[in-house]
Amino acid sequence: MCGIVGVLGHNEVAPILVEALKRLEYRGYDSAGIATVNRGRLDRRRAVGKLVNLSDLLVHEPLAGKAGIGHTRWATHGAATVINAHPHRSGPVAVVHNGIIENFRELRAELAEKGLACETETDTETVALLVRHHMDQGLSPRDAARETLKQLDGAFALLFLFDGEEDLMIAARKGSPLAIGHGQGEMFVGSDAIALAPMTDRITYLEEGDYAFVTRAGVEIFDAAGRRANRDVQKIQLDATRIEKAGYKHFMAKEIAEQPIVLADAIKHYCRGGKINLPEELDFATLDRLTLVACGTASYACMTAKYWFESLAGLNCEVDIASEFRYREPPLPQNSFAIFVSQSGETADTLAALRYARDKVAKIVSVVNVATSSIARESDIALPILAGVEVGVASTKAFTCQLAVLLLLALEAGRQRGRIDDAALAEHLKALASLPGLMNQTLTREPTIAATAAAIAEAQDVLFLGRGAMFPLALEGALKLKEISYIHAEGYASGELKHGPIALIDKAVPVIVLAPRDALFDKTVSNMQEVMARHGKVVLITDAKGADEASYGTWKTLTLPELPALLAPILYALPAQLLAYHAAVAKGTDVDQPRNLAKSVTVE
Ligand code: F6R
């Protein structure tokens, strides 16, 4: 989850590296560092905490050089201290690393026997020591890196820089992505193309097991077996304006507000002429089963989709979180599709789950935001959600776009399986097309939602309740609140309340009830009454009819536009996001970069 960047440039690289690291800070912000080679000598600067601390340090202790590497860290091995910060250096080599070297303990012991002791708590330092050891034995930087890579187990992306080598970086990918950027007599390396966006749009992605010797003249790539490999140079389209805050206080606020636009884009992309346009190979007609796999917020999108695939298409649907799925060895029927949902497309567990399913099912399908990601590239069919770059660590617009794409898949599956006729499909699509407008209306209620959030910010514990397809949204609402405001929150299926969680209810516990006036409304309201009878402070989120019928006795009622029940999980995501956002703002937490988290979870 750390961010890596490297530049062989014409100009001083320190400011360029810091700028690129800014674009990678979403991957981690426990510490940051850069190393350069200047007049043949390696040197480095590192600082704990956000990138701004490194920038400040560089003002007082500048670092010259036209070749350099940089890193922003999400700590795995060892606390966030300067000594554990990357780049790690040993003798003639500096290295930055994303991922985990799983056999670092064994390597450490072997190195210690050779008199090379580690000074840090990190797994990465062993890599630097190994390269140094091989160079001490007389190997060139290229051969030393090659030998070192053979000794490493785990999933990683690595980038090396060497003393005396102002025109060489060595990059390696095993499990974690790396992009090589091509400039005019300059070369770049980054964890993703976004980091390199202002410098170049010509990108080569390393494939699994590849390593590369990068010089200003170009790149030589080798596969895992050490054979020369040809990898395409792709022209990447990245809209830099979408990576700015555009006047909003936080990226999360901007991304919440963008939802009507990006959702409309996604709907337009998939629906044309009253039809849903999906690749022809997506044939659900006689399929036995669907398996949906993801992590975190994306897994709640999958849980919601299960309700849709079952009710609209009569299709058996299993949902799993990737970290469990990958090790459980679940049997997968051949006549089934496995669908992997991921904003980043780089989540380590989801990618491993995809690889597990490969060859076991008829099709590997992914629903991704980053179209060039590993998950997209390793799928038979990759369906973009078209949410645009999501920077805030808490996923918002990606979640609603994931839901929209999954709903379209479920509707198409229903059509192909003869459960939805053309007229019904047209009705559903018409309703879906009205959703961006309803989202806009919902966003106008932000001041009321913010006032409620300010009251919720006082609480220690919050419960979210929902029934049917609103249950996964209760889980999502709780996740959103805890991750950015640090308030303890749990989501429950309303019907589960009596089976334990009701013991938590007292007058200090706000209970957020997500209840559009649908077929299950009365049942949810009964559960809500049980909460109020125990002095729980209910925040009812419903529509005008629901508010008329059930707002009596609630602490607060938030009213949303009416809409077909099928679409409610998408619209009701907005107040859940806004409650979390404004509670976090009221508490003064770091909304876009909450503690301990990172945007892209590339370690398992
Ligand atoms: C929460 C959040 C995470 C991600 C999860 C999966 O707001 O963003 O729970 O949903 O880490 O990430 P992706 O979708 O990139 O696979």
Automatic annotation (TrEMBL):
Catalytic activity from the UniProt record: D-fructose 6-phosphate + L-glutamine = D-glucosamine 6-phosphate + L-glutamate
Catalytic activity, EC: 2.6.1.16
UniProt keyword annotations, A-Z: Aminotransferase, Cytoplasm, Glutamine amidotransferase, Repeat, Transferase
UniProt-listed SUPFAM superfamilies: N-terminal nucleophile aminohydrolases (Ntn hydrolases), SIS domain
Domain Glutamine amidotransferase type-2: 2-217
NCBIfam families for this protein: glmS (TIGR01135), PRK00331.1 (NF001484)
Protein's recorded name: Glutamine--fructose-6-phosphate aminotransferase [isomerizing]
Organism: Albidovulum salinarum
Name of encoding gene: glmS
